[in-house]
Amino acid sequence: KIVIPEGYQTICNKAFYVPMLSTVFFFGGILGCVMLNSIPDKYGRKNIFKILVFLSCLLQLNLFLTIGPVHLVIVHFLSGFSSFAYGMSSVIVSEYSPRNIAGIVMSVVNAVYPLTGIVVGFYFMFINNWRLLFFLTSVLNTVVTLFTLKYFVESPRWLNSQKKTDECLETLRSIAETNGRVKEWEEFLATNKNALLNDGPKQNSNSAKNYSLIQIIGFKSQRTNFIFNSFLWLSGGFCFYGIILNLGHMGGDFFADSILAFTGEITSELSSGWMAEIFGRVFGMQSGAFLGATCFLV
């Protein structure tokens, strides 16, 4: 017997509400990316990150206190909006990672997402209590947030543009310490300090200028990249989330199907960074797209 809170009992009587919650979440994510993408460049990313993760914690608690379908829709939309913070976290990980293993590190980080999907799948196979899950995720989200804030650093590029020289150098040194490159950093700083700081030649003339999406698309090279990557993300996301949202109609045990799907995603996440490092990202993208298209045709 499935134990469902009152709000979910209401929406589960209408099948279209369940995938609608996922759709609303992604609409919130789209709005967050559009509205917030330039904010960190103007005000710094650290404070924006703090606000978004605090909002995320409150939304997790709201899920635990679900009172109805409208409440669920609003919370899912705002959760999608605040998920912009997790993209900012990925930037931090990539900055702190040594270049020779950055791709592999990001693959491991990305694989954590489907891993949680597997854990949740097993949770519902054996426990199946929605409110308990929301309570546990609220606690976990709060703990992870407090831990993350300790290591979330401001952008050195933004600090430099704001003439916060000491903080910029301190952040860069912190990154060097994380990578075990303090000696190289000190040697580099001794001969290149002026080039890094605001008093360097022509350092601020272009770096401080902000461009809108329309202006960026105006550049031929960026326009090509934008269209190409938009197509890749749209087609890949449509196929992936189409499969996830349709798992309930594919037959078999829903949770077992979910675990299998997320296991496949972990495999792809872990292999993508390795393939990019060994074979280059072009071959990795081509082979992944070809394999995916073949499987969908089958």
> Low-confidence stretches at least 5 residues in length (pLDDT < 50)?
200-208
The number of distinct helices, counting runs of at least 4 residues, comes to: 16
Percent of sequence in beta strands = under 5%
**Major beta-sheet overview:** none
- What is the mean predicted local confidence, pLDDT? 78
The backbone outline, from C-alpha atoms, is globular
**What is the helix fraction of residues, given as a range?**
over 70%
From the alpha carbons, calculate the radius of gyration and give it in angstroms: 22 Å
**H-E order:** HHHHHHHHHHHHHHHH
Summarize the structure in words.
The chain is mainly alpha-helical and 298 residues long. The chain contains 16 helices and no strands. It is 80% helix and 0% strand. Helix 4 (45-64) packs antiparallel against helix 8. The radius of gyration is 22 Å and the shape is globular. The relative contact order is 0.10. Mean pLDDT is 78; it is low at 200-208.
What's the short version?
The protein is mostly helical and 298 residues long. Helix content is 80%, strand content 0%. α2 runs parallel beside α5 (69-82) and α15 packs antiparallel against α16.
